[in-house]
Give the backbone structure.
Amino acid sequence: MGYIEPAPIRDHENPFESMMSRFDIASQTLGLDEEIYNVLKTPAKQVIVSLPVTMDDGSIRVFQGYRVIHSNILGPSKGGIRFDPAVNLDEVKALAAWMTWKCAVVDIPYGGAKGGITCNPREMSAGEVERLVRSYTDAMIEIFGPDRDIPAPDMGTGPREMAWLMDEFSRAHGTTINAVVTGKPIVLGGSLGRAEATGRGVMVSAMVAMEKLKINPYNATCAIQGFGNVGSYTATLMKERGVKIVAISDISGAYYNEKGIDARAAQIYRDANNGLLEGFPDAERIDGNELLTLDVDVLVPAAKEDVINKHNAHDIKAKLIVEGANGPTSFKADKIISDKGILVVPDILANAGGVTVSYFEWVQNRLGYKWTRDRVNRRSDRIIKAAFERVYKTAQKYDVTMRIAAYMVAIDKVAKTYKYRGGF
Ligand code: NAD
């Protein structure tokens, strides 16, 4: 097929290109039509806006804002808004495509999108950030909407920014429209269970994978890189199910205890210690990179991208890797890891619990009703388990890794939808 890149393994370790390489392999394995391949490769819409904002000192600064809708064929597009000095159109385009695959693999009725503003929110006052969010929302008033495109938080944004976005959008429409955005504060229509949703999905994926590998959770050990939202909830929930957490880490260092770490105590320690594990007692301090190559049953990278790469993949000893972070394994490491017989539950499946509960937030807002935490958890567990089984079966049927299988499930769903809808 002429549309596949000639070199099967490219000389790069960039997470977004890594994703596109997997997209190429999955498309090829599926035998995807060239026309549909080209449709899926290009974003449906790219919007770039200039956002003048009055700063606290009275000066006016112009920020660059983006929103890319990769696909809205399955439903309204969904994806976070990133505030970071490094935000650029290429990155936003790649992240938007990633959202299309993530929503499709868990079978929720959304397309993929991503937004961003090139700015440094850490150097801005709350007032400046608020004016920037409102300006961005005004610029995107025709793009956003509960039936069109639904933003959420990403790096550098959180419930506070989502509240301002919802307010600005609602003011422009003369009525409260809370379903325009997810990740809101609970009082504005945020969902119970959203905070722990991603870690919970990681735990559920890990438990199902352990069952497939016949690993008894009560005899299993686990190392977790990153102790933020995803890593810390994964740790407490895995521990609740009998898994011994022998190592955790964050930007301050890594902490090891062969007898097991009390994840809840570590969360409490972190919260009382400026959000850091620095000085965490009851554990020996080890090198951060060593955590990844510990002799454990389960490894959960839940910090950042490309941490498992061609330099350390050979040394990984875990039987199972469950990707809490987005893009923690480089494309080059994929083959090394799979040749070693390690099962990888890929990011677009393992960490999709977050977007699943965002979807529930939107559903609840549209129903004008609030679900209990228990209902949210039960329904999201069901979705993650079903997605896992779909991907696992596809991997067996085509004799591919779970990562390629996840892309195949997602691409197949989006491609079929295009075919049925037609209209080219
Ligand atoms: P977070 O900011 O809450 O936590 C990140 C953690 O990683 C922190 O503990 C930080 O200290 C640690 N860290 C950073 N660099 C590290 C390093 N070099 N070594 C060890 N630890 C390091 O972020 P989060 O929301 O938990 O997100 C983590 C990852 O999961 C990201 O890749 C994110 O894109 C992905 N993710 C998050 C969600 C979500 O709902 N929060 C959903 C899907 C995917």
Remarks:
- The first helix runs from residue 15 to 30.
- The CA atoms of residues 222 and 298 lie 5 Å apart.
- Residues 198, 225-231, 249-251, 288, 302-304, 324-326, 351, 354 surround nicotinamide-adenine-dinucleotide (CB under 6 Å).
- Residues 197-345 form a domain with the Rossmann fold fold (CATH 3.40.50.720).
